[in-house]
Amino acid sequence: MMGSGGMIVMDQDTCMVDVARYFLEFLQEESCGQCVPCREGIMRQLQVLTDICAGKGKDGDIELLEDLSDTVVKLSLCALGGTAPNPVLTTLAYFRDEYIAHIYDKKCTSGVCKELFYYEIDEENCNGCHVCFRKCPEEAISGEKKELHTIDQEKCIKCSICYESCKFDAILIK
Length: 174
Fold this sequence. Notes:
CATH topology of the largest domain: de novo design (two linked rop proteins)
Low-confidence stretches: none
CATH superfamily of the largest domain: NADH-ubiquinone oxidoreductase 51kDa subunit, iron-sulphur binding domain
Largest sheet: 2 strands, antiparallel
CATH architecture of the largest domain: Up-down Bundle
Number of strands: 4
Oligomer: single chain
Distance between the termini: 32 Å
Number of helices: 7
Strand content: 5-15%
Strand order of the largest sheet: 1-4
Shape: elongated
Mean pLDDT: 94
């Protein structure tokens, strides 16, 4: 439950860990700050989620999020605190594999958490059309026209322009 009966549609390009982080960021601003479990619990959960999304997640973070959620729900004085952990609990219940991938594999398969993915050019699909080469704002893509292109990972800022502009599905999220 988040809000007043609204519906949010998401697909495979939505990172559920980042969705939980986003909602906790909002809820932290909404908290009145008077009750310690809500104020500190939401802040700590947000810190853990931010670390996970930044590739700094560690063993025990999932259990910590669950424990914090339980504490915030049980000890908060108002309905905001009682429901604030819902995004974390729901994403953990249905998308735990994404948390595990973020923490242990250091991967964000949806390509949202910039520290946890990179772009790669698929040799079979790249025909050297040069669109990605021309559109890359950092000149991170090299290659001659009608030949296989490559991405310099040091220059790439993960802006997704190459991914979005490739009509041949030659840019892969890894």
